Amino acid sequence: VDYYDHSAQAEGWGTDFRRNMGTANDAYGKYATELFTEEAVQLVLEHDAQQPLFLYLAHLAVHSANSYAPLQAPADAVEKFSYINDLNRRTFAGMLSKLDDSVGEVVAALELRGMLENSIIVFTTDNGGPAAGFNLNHASNWPLRGVKDSLWEGGVRGAGFVWSPLIKQSPGTVSRTLMAIEDWLPSLYAAAGGDPDDLPEMDGVNMWPSMSTGAPSARIQLLHNIDPISHNAGLRVGDWKLVHNPAGQWVDWNGWYGPAGRNCTVPECQLTTLLQAAKSSLAGRAALRINSQAFAGILQTREHAMVNCTTAPDGPPSLCRKSSHPCLFHIPSDPCELQDLSAEHPALLQVMMHLLQLYNSTAVPAANRPSDAAANPKYWNYTWNNWMDYPEPVGLNTN
Predict the structure, then answer these.
(1) N or C end of the chain: which has fewer CB within 10 A?
(2) Angle, alpha carbons 196-211-118 (nearest 5°)
(3) How far is the C-alpha of 337 from the C-alpha of 386, rounded, in Å?
(4) 307: how many CB neighbours lie within 10 A of its CB?
(5) Is cis: bond before 44, omega within 30 of 0?
(6) pLDDT of res. 399
(7) What is the pLDDT of residues 178-230, one digit of tens each?
(8) Can you list the pairs that 290-297 forms with residues at least 24 positions away whose Cβ atoms lie under 8 Å?
(9) Which one is predicted more confidently, 150 or 322?
(10) Which residue ranges does UniProt annotate as crossing the membrane (predicted)?
(11) Cα distance between residue 146 and residue 149, in whole Å
């Protein structure tokens, strides 16, 4: 998605799985990713398998952590990627590998309880990556333009996948249909057997028919954002995207940021090695036990999912900062936002600007509140908490 049999042998494997989980958590009990995973697995293992379960697992990885140590992962996870020369990228890879492990452990727990064959698993990001040191992080959105917190495709396009035996399309189907984050609620509600028409009025639309059968997308347009503070705005209508000041306050982040990840030559980067690792992972083995053809056509899927630019981006041709004349891009043919087509399609530009104004007419004032110095984690043993329920911290500096 691009968006916007339980035999004695299986039971024995489950015992090993629980034992291995215990070993891992004893070693890295303070690492948030593993703590979240442990809790999620425990919820699955203790759940009545005859009753529905909605599990929302929102990991902190691979988000930046503290300013003095933004990228954190267990030493052994980082060491697995010793062939990556850049320390920040190496640590980032370690963080991501622990996230991969978490997915595998949750999937394994679902299989152990006999719940996997009736599950829908959604793995998705909430925004593009903070690349090249943006926000103290080292993700990569290459070759998409921009970074997290921008309206370029590198900021708003969310990569992810939906896996389920309930999906009628062939494994490995790549969808490029337009979808927004608010569509998950009605879509999953419908997938679970509910009628989306019974839900309160909302912006989201039911995308489950598109995901499960390949039906045409119910979404034809979406508002990326209208921000009166950063003075940026973005809108999609079908294949077309209108953007004004897409990098907002981050005026230096209008380019394309890597690394591309396509020039690695060490054995660990070879496609056959990576594919075998995926097949032998906890999640991969579970998927293959349910469907022996789960990885069929994976190379074609990878090729189909690849984003390629018509030319190599070497510098921003346009920063699109004029609110009176924003940029217009045709995303299917120009996913890297290289060519502003507003001059070639003035009528379409005016239609989309008018639609943006209609959206803005329904806006309510921003509800941002000033920062509260008392909320600083340094006053609370470096943890976030409900600080207003407690007396003012000792040594509070409000300057």
Answers:
(1) C
(2) 80
(3) 42
(4) 14
(5) no
(6) 62
(7) 999 999 999 999 999 999 999 999 999 999 999 999 999 999 999 999 998 88
(8) 290/116, 290/117, 290/165, 291/165, 291/171, 293/171, 294/171, 295/171, 295/172, 296/171, 296/172, 297/170, 297/171, 297/172
(9) 150
(10) none
(11) 9
Of the candidates 119, 14, 129, 6, the one whose C-alpha atom is nearest the C-alpha of residue 61 is: 129
pTM recorded for the entire structure: 0.86
Q: Are 342 and 350 in contact (CB under 8 A)?
A: no
256 φ, ψ (degrees, to nearest 5):
-120, 125
Sorted by sequence, the CB contacts under 8 Å of residue 167 that are 6+ apart come out as 211, 212
Pair of tokens at residue 340:
């502003």
DSSP at 368: -
Helices (H), the chain: 8-27, 32-46, 75-79, 87-112, 153-156, 184-191, 208-213, 271-280, 282-290, 298-305, 346-360
Distance CA 65, CA 92 (A): 11
Q: Give burial (CB, 10 Å; 0-12/13-18/19+) of 309.
A: middle
Number of residues that this document lists for the chain: 399
- The stretches of 1-119 forming alpha helices (DSSP H) are 8-27, 32-46, 75-79, 87-112
Q: What is the DSSP letter of 243?
A: E
Q: Cα(94)–Cα(75) distance, rounded to whole angstroms?
A: 8
Nearest alpha-carbon partner for 54 in 127, 112, 102, 115: 115
Contact 24, 102 (CB under 8 A): no
